[in-house]
């Protein structure tokens, strides 16, 4: 399948599809060994090199990916949530129990200790981080997520979602198409979330909506750092449920893309 929008925009990176599966794909690149590192390095390879990649529950190696791809919350108890909230805010400076947090860091690899001690600083304080973590959309289904170029979809294969990778002008055009049929005041979502969560659980949540919206990302530098080898820094992802993608494809046939004004940007 080819995207009409992508063809009209002459996109450097055509959209990719995210597919949930209970079976490990045989013809795809996946993590080696039990742990998989950051999934965004695999997503980036699909975007830039058009290689089909996958990631499974057995490859989880960080605190955000469980919920990101609909594999439960990832937290067995309140202490685990507190640890994650501390890391995502100001590290030891925001720890409700600083001594206990530092003790846990002592059992981590040295290359990780400093990052966890300083905190990722996605949130301004522990309380905000913890509340946000508890409000993430949680699903628990499927064993694997598969990423493939939209052009590589098999007959009858229905993706969970579609991910565009866009520069500022391409983003402007898609936003205008996306807003052309709406009357409410929120047209695009930018959740404070990891890169895998924006293309995963927050997009899955929009699939459940009667009025789905696309999700912009990645706004976390940790996720971006795993993609920059393949994708220039000025690019963003715009993820959307399959049903919204089909609607935008239809709407785009009579849109700003057929105007002389748009042609000035080609």
Question: Would you kindly provide a written description of the structure presented here, covering whatever features stand out?
Answer:
The relative contact order is 0.19. The longest helix has 12 residues, at 168-179. Helices cover 38% and strands 12% of the residues. The chain has two domains: 4-64 and 139-263, no CATH class; 74-134, no CATH class. It is built from 13 helices and six strands. It has a six-stranded antiparallel β-sheet with strand order 2-3-1-4-6-5. The chain is an alpha+beta fold. The chain is globular.
Tally of DSSP helical segments: 13
**How many distinct domains?**
2
Report the strand count: 6
Radius of gyration: 19 Å
Mean of the pLDDT scores? 94
Q: Return the structural class.
A: alpha+beta
> Hey, roughly how much beta strand do the residues contain?
5-15%
SSE order: HEHEHHHHHEEHHHEHEHH
Distance between the termini: 23 Å
Low-pLDDT sequence parts:
none
The order of strands across the largest sheet is 2-3-1-4-6-5
Which geometry do the CA atoms define?
globular
The helicity comes to 25-40%
Oligomeric state, counting identical vs distinct chains: single chain
Largest sheet: 6 strands, antiparallel
């Amino acid at each position: 399948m080819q995207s009409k929008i992508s063809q009209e925009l002459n996109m450097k990176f055509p959209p990719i599809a995210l597919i949930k599966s209970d079976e490990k794909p045989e013809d795809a690149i996946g993590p080696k060994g039990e742990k998989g590192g950051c999934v965004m390095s695999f997503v980036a390879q699909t975007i830039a090199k058009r290689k089909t990649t996958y990631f499974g529950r057995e490859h989880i190696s960080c605190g955000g990916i469980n919920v990101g791809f609909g594999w439960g919350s990832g937290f067995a108890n309140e202490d685990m949530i507190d640890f994650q909230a501390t890391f995502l805010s100001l590290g030891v400076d925001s720890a409700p129990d600083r001594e206990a947090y530092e003790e846990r860091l002592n059992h981590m690899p040295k290359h990780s200790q400093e990052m966890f001690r300083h905190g990722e600083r996605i949130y301004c304080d522990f309380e905000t981080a913890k509340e946000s973590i508890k409000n993430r959309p949680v699903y628990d289904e499927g064993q694997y997520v598969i990423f493939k170029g939209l052009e590589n979809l098999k007959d009858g294969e229905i993706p969970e979602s579609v991910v565009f990778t866009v520069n500022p002008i391409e983003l402007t055009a898609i936003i205008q198409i996306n807003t052309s049929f709406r009357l409410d005041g929120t047209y695009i979502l930018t959740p404070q979330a990891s890169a895998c969560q924006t293309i995963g659980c927050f997009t899955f949540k929009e699939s459940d909506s009667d009025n789905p919206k696309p999700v912009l990302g990645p706004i976390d530098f940790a996720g971006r750092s795993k993609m920059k080898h393949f994708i220039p820094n000025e690019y963003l992802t715009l993820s959307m449920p399959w049903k919204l993608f089909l609607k935008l494809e239809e709407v785009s046939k009579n849109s700003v893309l057929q105007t002389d004004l748009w042609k000035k940007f080609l």
